[in-house]
Amino acid sequence: MTDTPSPAGRAPGAPLVVLTDVNKHFGDLHVLQDINLTVHEGEVVVVIGPSGSGKSTLCRTINRLETYESGTITIDGQDLPQEGKALARLRADVGMVFQSFNLFSHKTILENVTLGPIKVRGLKPKEAEKQAMALLERVGVAHQAKKYPAQLSGGQQQRVAIARSLAMEPRVMLFDEPTSALDPEMINEVLDVMVSLAKSGMTMIVVTHEMGFARKAADRVVFMSDGAIVEENTPEEFFTNPQSPRAKDFLGKILTH
Ligand SMILES: Nc1ncnc2c1ncn2[C@@H]1O[C@H](COP(=O)(O)OP(=O)(O)OP(=O)(O)O)[C@@H](O)[C@H]1O
Ligand SMILES: [Mg+2]
Questions:
Q1: pLDDT tens per residue across span 193-205
Q2: From the centroid of its chain, how far is CA 50?
Q3: CA of 26 to the centre of ligand 1 (A)
Q4: Which is the closest atom of ligand 1 to the Cα of 54?
Q5: pTM of the entire predicted model
Q6: Do residues 200 and 172 make contact, with C-beta atoms less than 8 angstroms apart?
Q7: Rounded to whole angstroms, how far apart are CA atoms 193 and 199?
Q8: How many whole angstroms from 120 Cα to the centroid of ligand 2?
Q9: Pairwise CA distance, residues 26 & 28, whole Å
């Protein structure tokens, strides 16, 4: 897969994911507070913030793994469907890669990648395999196709998880701390795949504290604290010149380890 072409008639850089005044509670906890966020086609947005600030909840809400109480979330102008076929389609439009690899342990690497395209997109097994092998090649694990997840390193499994998401041909990819469960030597191999994905024009929302990735690949950094977006800026500005006391405090902590 190369660059995701825009459907005809749509200018590049049009708003793709738009959150307007989104609010969500977990009981008494106001976990998402008046979230307004627009991610344009081809844009890479890094979401950063302290533990418990609502970053994962934001991703899960965009993908409708969580409900929300007020506001709107649209993907390419379409309201988020509540259920049924429309929701399955939306889920295919929004790929998600989590901290844990979530591969099916009893299926081979190749089967992990072909399953969705065969079941949801209706591809023939041969076509799905061809596409899967190209994607596994792209993330550097094609030679592992016949193995089972437990036989791969964490970094390799995470790259398979990325290939599996890409196989659904998503419009936008969400990554929730995709490298935080990895041993240090495997972090870069996953980040390299993500940087190349960003370069290919994929729209991405990435929760990560990897500043190298943010600097290399992000158009924008969004800083969350206590359920709210407190600050948004270019990576360079955000890391060198944070504006809010909360961002300054947070960066002071992560920069000193
Ligand atoms: N299903 C749930 N039920 C109740 N509270 C929840 C639930 N999921 C998350 N929370 C709470 O919501 C808040 C935000 O959690 P979330 O996982 O979105 O934070 P985060 O920014 O991703 O944190 P981390 O950096 O640790 O991953 C936390 O206080 C958390 O305890
Ligand atoms: Mg989280």
A1: 999 999 999 999 9
A2: 18
A3: 9
A4: 18
A5: 0.92
A6: no
A7: 10
A8: 28
A9: 6
At residue 178, what are phi and psi to the nearest 5 degrees? -65, -15
What is the Å distance from ligand 2's center to 228 Cα? 14
Report which residue type is found at 106: H
Length of the chain counted residue by residue? 257
The pLDDT tens digits of the residues spanning 146-195 come to 999 999 999 999 999 999 999 999 999 999 999 999 998 899 999 999 99
Decide: helix, strand or coil at residue 204: strand
Which among 28, 57, 58, 99 is the best mutation to test ligand 1's pocket, defined by most ligand atoms within 8 Å of the CB? 57
Question: CA 242, CA 172: separation in Å to the nearest integer?
Answer: 27
* Structure-token pair, residue 24: 């969500």
Q: Is the dihedral of CA 106, 111, 116, 118 positive or negative?
A: negative
The tokens of 225 are what?
């604290």
Q: Phi/psi of residue 125, each to 5°?
A: -50, -40
Burial class (CB in 10 A: 0-12, 13-18, 19+), 33: middle
Show the ligand 1 pocket: residues with CB < 6 angstroms.
Answer: 26, 29, 31, 49, 51-57
Of 162, 177, 183, the residue nearest 112 (C-alpha): 162
Residue with CA nearest ligand 1 atom 26 = 51
Q: Please name the residue ranges forming H helices in 76-153.
A: 84-93, 109-119, 125-138
How many Cα atoms are found within 13 Å in the side-chain-facing hemisphere of 66?
Answer: 19
Structure tokens at 129: 């395999």
Closest CA to 203 of 179, 174, 176, 231: 174
- Cβ neighbours of residue 147 closer than 8 Å, sequence gap 6 or more: 108, 109
